Amino acid sequence: EFLPLGPVLxxxxxxxxxxxDLGMLRVRKTRQVLDRTELGVxxxxxxxxxRFEEELLLELQxxxxxxVVVFNKVDVEVPDPERLAWLAGHKIRHVETAAAHGLGLDxxxxxxxxxxxxxxxxxxxxxxxxxxxxxxxxxxxPIDKEAPKGxxxxxxxxxxxxxxxxxxxxxxxxxxxxxxxxxxxxxPPRLVVTDSQAFEQVAAETPRSVPLTSFSILxxxxxxxxxxxxxxxxxIDSLRPGDxxxxxxxxxxxxxxxxxxRVKIPRWLNTRVGGEVRFDHxxxxxxxxxxxxxxxxxxxxxxxxxxxxxxxxxxxCQQAGVPVTNYGLAIAFSLGILERALExxxxxxxxxxxxxxxGSAQPRPLLPTxxxxxxxxxxxxxxxx
Amino acid sequence: EFLPLGPVLxxxxxxxxxxxDLGMLRVRKTRQVLDRTELGVxxxxxxxxxRFEEELLLELQxxxxxxVVVFNKVDVEVPDPERLAWLAGHKIRHVETAAAHGLGLDxxxxxxxxxxxxxxxxxxxxxxxxxxxxxxxxxxxPIDKEAPKGxxxxxxxxxxxxxxxxxxxxxxxxxxxxxxxxxxxxxPPRLVVTDSQAFEQVAAETPRSVPLTSFSILxxxxxxxxxxxxxxxxxIDSLRPGDxxxxxxxxxxxxxxxxxxRVKIPRWLNTRVGGEVRFDHxxxxxxxxxxxxxxxxxxxxxxxxxxxxxxxxxxxCQQAGVPVTNYGLAIAFSLGILERALExxxxxxxxxxxxxxxGSAQPRPLLPTxxxxxxxxxxxxxxxx
Lengths: 385, 385
Known about the structure:
2 copies of one chain form a homodimer.
Chain A: H1 20-35, E1 40-45, H2 51-62, E2 67-72, H3 81-89, E3 93-96, H4 105-115, H5 118-121, H6 128-131, E4 136-140, H7 154-165, E5 169-173, H8 178-183, E6 191-194, H9 199-205, E7 212-214, H10 215-223, H11 226-234, E8 244-249, H12 260-273, E9 278-283, E10 296-299, H13 307-319, E11 324-326, H14 327-334, H15 338-341, H16 346-353
Parallel strand pairs in A: 1-2, 2-3, 4-5, 4-6, 6-7, 8-9, 8-10, 10-11
Helix pairs in contact in A: 4-13, 12-14
């Protein structure tokens, strides 16, 4: 499991530049590895560069396999300009790290994020994996003034489709019909999903034994990074009056009266913080270059973005040391219902119940919290020499 | 009930040009009628035109009420050019009819269709009125190659939303999960709606006591004219090899392998007819000026059109004497399942079971078959002097 790619098979190759009979065998093995490599990572050091490194990179390019060169131990020695010019001339990306000191890892993550094929980036499921074939989910869909005329919002449609794609089926109800719908069933649904704004009522009417979550949590897992964005929600409690918060929305709809990003979330947050927080708003593909002035970024569910774009934003927040969450997670936290909504995701829930302690000073783990079952992703062959 | 407007309150005014005390009272009554008039129809004859007609029209224009002037009995006397010039100068539309001989009625219908406010044209419901508050519909949504990636097609989304808007709720299932979903319910759904292509399987698995219909029938009622388009489906049996059929699609998607309009429907129709029918295809807002060469028009569900545009096409087919139906109705008829699918619409079903007999030579009734309950439409005040 390697952020942001999910489960990755790293193949530490035997060394393609060995001499002798044993070396020849190893070289052949390495060539075989290339046949199943989908993203190449060549880890080397400034001093350890030769004909074999260059041939391997050219071989990967011939195979149209994306590759990134990692110069590690740059605290000891930096790569010489001639090498870098050669890489630039061949349009091969490189990053410089000092892994032992935790330097350059975000740049390495960003390179993986940029280079990985779309299949690796895109999540395997929205909700169907939590329900399973032949099983039933109940979706609570309030119809408020922001609902598009005559239709449903995209995350709701995507959730229904994802359930069908997983051979599951679903009940779609307004919050006022929830009890009636539950009463009509011989056995309870496998999962209830609600709009975050109706969470309190839905939680009260859903039997305690039925797992309950929100569309925003599903969207965070699907389009973002659930563990990171839950951590961002927890940061709400360290906000103080006067702090700046960025509210970012991926679609550029015209805000209306009770707009969730401009009215409801600021109101809830000010109540929670006990004073006026200063909110900035951005829409669409605008995203500030300098995030350092913000104490928190609250993003929409990003249903109009692809996951690569959303993960890039999360990574940029992390690089700037700014917690990032999404609308529904912020609402759930403010309403005190985050824990119940995370029960379908035990690993993330455990992190909420036992926070690492040190807050933002704590080093971020290289391995993120698992939110999909391992079998959901095809194994990915990486490459390190 | 007046095509294409639905239930209309026609107010035959007492005459605004009477003299004397009784006349004054009548004039005041007529003015009051204008206060609740939403579409004016001034029926007159070539010889019966005066200052009052002109004042009434100008009064309606001041009130921004759309109006059409009907010169009736044009078989006796035609309106003089000066009158027509005055109307044209004031941008007032007129039609010429000889109602006793059935002349000009389609032009009158078209004028009503063009002038009526959108509220009159748009149907009050897709499916929610058939299910009712607190009740359950089951929607069967097969996922085939033509389903848009990760989403649902618009009629399915619109149906779900319409049910929620009517305080109903719904089960959404693939055809393979239908039996399992039905088994999970303590009481059967009030209605089952299926994609036409899965109708046979769904009909076999749905208890005979549960009403069953198709999305295409709902769309015909919502965006078109169900009675007229069912009549069009019945015309399939009068097709012969070599006849020309127009297949019209409102969206301009790129046709794929098993395209319903280009592959499946032609295949079914050729089988039914027992020989090669010649198919022409149009997409988007293209629609041939000359329809007379066609023996049948098969239209998509028109989810991308507004109802005014679809009703205009139906009227144009009727003016050309060409039957018109939609995809799902054609499929349902070809599969022999049309009658069961029409059971939720008893008046239309009766017309199928007892066809008027004379075929296309039969005069079309001015009052179309009712497909919405009367209380669904606000009463509409028309005006005739």
